[in-house]
Amino acid sequence: MTSPRPAPLTTRTLGSGSAALTVSTLGLGCMGMSEFYGAPDEQSGLDTLARALDLGVTFLDTADMYGPFTNEELVGRAIAGRRDEVQLATKFGNKRGEDGSRLGIDGSPEYVRAACDASLQRLGVDTIDLYYQHRVDPTVPIEDTVGAMAELVTAGKVRFLGLSEASAETIRRAHAVHPVTAVQTEYSLFTRDLEDTVLPTLRELGVGLVPYSPLGRGLLTGAVTQTPADGDSRASGYFPRFQGEALAANLVLVDRVREQAAAHGCTPGQLALAWVLAQGEDVVPIPGTKRVRYLEENVGAAAVTLTTADVEALSAAVPRDAVRGDRYGDMSSIDR
């Protein structure tokens, strides 16, 4: 199949008013370059980041927990000498040890300040463009966490603030303390629960949406046909959609996407990304990859034009309630 080739991207704006941040229409999730989806490949990651910038994918997303810590260092090396081209996003809150152990969620003001300083050092930059709370800490009032984040803006260490996997109520409370530019959450043809309360709240407040895993962790590309091999986190029970009967049912839905993609002259992944892009100019997905060829395929999705009827047909082909399995085995830190 001949699929749309990448062309330099246009831009979109996250947030509004004094909290508006202009970024590339598609971003790049960098997590998998260092962990979770098979063995890390540093050189491949660097090559992918360089190619992304050349294509106009300038919105780069990382977090201190990825690696742990090594992904920020990788991104920092990749953007050295090209910092002015980049809108750099990173996150704090999911604490990990140097050995990779998970130490819980921390939204305390003291940790906010310490985590930011550590990220700045690893990234090799003076300012983070978009700083997210990775997960909401239920033991710390969101007002206290965002208050500390706002101090980072005043200090010039951070330009704009974001939240990840927050509930509509939490977003409102946070936005009342300091304008929130973007909320990052999972959103794809396979994950649409945010359409009920979170997305309407974002639009009421003028907050942008940054969907991660817009390709359903690779399922919607059509490349996944069985549970991934050991060494890939998707092989674990933490990702129920890749297991047994759930995977079989979900692959039937992928076949429907593949059929419609053929009619559009694009790949299934490009169609799935085009569907996310069609949800609004305030939506900027960040598909992740560590391979140049997948990056180029993803960027090609921006050239896939969908009518309202096309979007509705694709939504109907993959009904919300037809997807099998929760997106995480443990959903306790989601939508807080």
Topology:
Layout: E1 11-14, E2 21-24, E3 27-29, H1 42-54, E4 59-61, H2 70-79, E5 87-92, E6 94-96, E7 102-105, H3 109-123, E8 128-133, H4 142-154, E9 158-164, H5 168-177, E10 182-186, H6 198-205, E11 208-212, H7 244-264, H8 268-277, H9 292-300, H10 308-317
Parallel strand pairs: 3-4, 4-5, 5-8, 8-9, 9-10, 10-11
Antiparallel strand pairs: 1-2, 6-7
Helix pairs in contact: 1-2, 3-4, 4-5, 5-6, 7-8
Please give a structural write-up.
The chain has 336 residues and is α/β, with parallel strands linked by helices. Helix content is 35%, strand content 15%. The protein is built from 10 helices and 11 strands. The chain has helices at residues 42-54, 70-79, 109-123, 142-154, 168-177, 198-205, 244-264, 268-277, 292-300, 308-317, and strands at residues 11-14, 21-24, 27-29, 59-61, 87-92, 94-96, 102-105, 128-133, 158-164, 182-186, 208-212. The strands form 3 sheets. Strands 3-4-5-8-9-10-11 form a 7-stranded parallel sheet. Strand 4 (59-61), helix 2 and strand 5 (87-92) form a beta-alpha-beta unit. It is globular and about 50 Å long. The mean pLDDT is 94. GO terms for molecular function: oxidoreductase activity. Pfam families: Aldo_ket_red (PF00248). Residues 26-317 form the NADP-dependent oxidoreductase domain. InterPro entries: Aldo-Keto_reductase (IPR050791), NAD(P)_OxRdtase_dom_sf (IPR036812), NADP_OxRdtase_dom (IPR023210).
